[in-house]
Amino acid sequence: MSAAHVPHSPAPLLTAQGLAKAFGGVQAVDGVSFSLQAGELLALIGPNGAGKSTCFNLINGQLPPDAGRVQLGGHDITGLRPRAIWRLGVGRTFQVAATYASMTVVENVQMALLSHYDCLRQWWPRAAALYREQALELLTAVGLRERADEPCSTLAYGDIKTVELAIALANSPRLLLMDEPTAGMAPRERGALMELTRRLAKERDIGVLFTEHSMDVVFAHADRIMVLARGRLIADGPPAQIRDDERVREVYLGSGRLLQARAVVSGAAGSSTRQEGPR
Ligand code: ADP
Ligand code: MG
């Protein structure tokens, strides 16, 4: 039978195969394999220390893996430098806000565009007029057009995180890596930022890999959820399947958070009250 007649899903945007990384005696990531499609929102969850950030750093080039491969659009990007991986269309947001407080909102986005188009940063401020329209379009996309000419320092934290999303989009990414994009944000803002991310990902066909503490946000916005425990993936599937996965519930047993998310999604009552939780 020819391939044309076989029903198949499109080739994955990102594929990780057997990724491994140890720090001294700690096996932070232990044989992680998964794939991600364009336009898909994939959440990586797991307790604190499970290896989530290390996974991100193996994909974005911050860390070389001890073993395993990473492919982007079918091309091997394993071990490439962060800048090279970024150039291939892998954007990222940072856990700690990384905008220039003294510059205006639109200037921050213009800087990112200049970098994307490889203009030298020392041209600034002569380049101040460059890419302004494009930067304003990106700010419109994230709902911050009217704040464009204010210094970033005047923005609320949630808005700064939203500017970071616009900055990440300046690179026209095919893949967006968001490690705790909503860290430090109020619960309502968290949902709004992920909703915005979801809309933009669908509109622009961007694959998104993200971590997030709030199980409510994860279960409400992810297309698929992977669960990491002690460096290993113990589950990978749509939210409804992850909710009912026994091993996942064991990992989160006692935290109450997954049970709460379950209650939100299914209307069932959660019962656990212990405090220590996944991060
Ligand atoms: P998560 O993001 O899921 O909380 P991390 O990937 O940050 O987990 O960490 C996984 C494990 O690897 C933890 O035991 C952590 O202490 C360890 N680890 C992470 N980064 C380093 C590092 N640069 N040096 C040494 N140990 C590290
Ligand atoms: Mg982390």
Explain what the structure shows.
It contains ten helices and ten strands. It is α/β, with parallel strands linked by helices. It has a domain of 72 residues. A six-stranded mixed beta sheet has the order 6-7-8-3-9-10, sandwiched between helices. Strands 2-1-4-5 form a four-stranded antiparallel beta sheet, with helices on one face. Helix 3 crosses helix 4, helix 3 packs parallel to helix 5 and helix 6 packs parallel to helix 7. The longest helix is centred in the C-terminal third of the chain and has 18 residues. The N and C termini lie far apart (47 Å). The relative contact order is 0.15. The C terminus is likely disordered. The structure holds adenosine-5'-diphosphate and magnesium ion. Magnesium ion binds next to helix 1. The site of magnesium ion has 2 residues, from helix 1.
Give the gist of this structure.
Helix content is 35%, strand content 21%. The protein contains ten helices and ten strands. The structure holds adenosine-5'-diphosphate (ADP) and magnesium ion.
Q: What's the total helix number?
A: 10
Main beta sheet: 6 strands, mixed
* Overall outline: globular
Q: Would you list the SSEs in sequence order as H and E?
A: EEEHEEHEHHHEHEHEEHHH
Beta fraction: 15-25%
- How confident overall, as mean pLDDT? 85
Task: Quickly give the structural class.
Answer: alpha/beta
Q: Catalogue the ligands.
A: adenosine-5'-diphosphate, magnesium ion
| Side-by-side strand order of the widest sheet | 6-7-8-3-9-10
Helix content: 25-40%
Rg from Cα: 20 Å
Low-confidence stretches: 259-279
- Beta strands, count: 10
Give the distance, in angstroms, between the N- and C-terminal Cα atoms. 47 Å
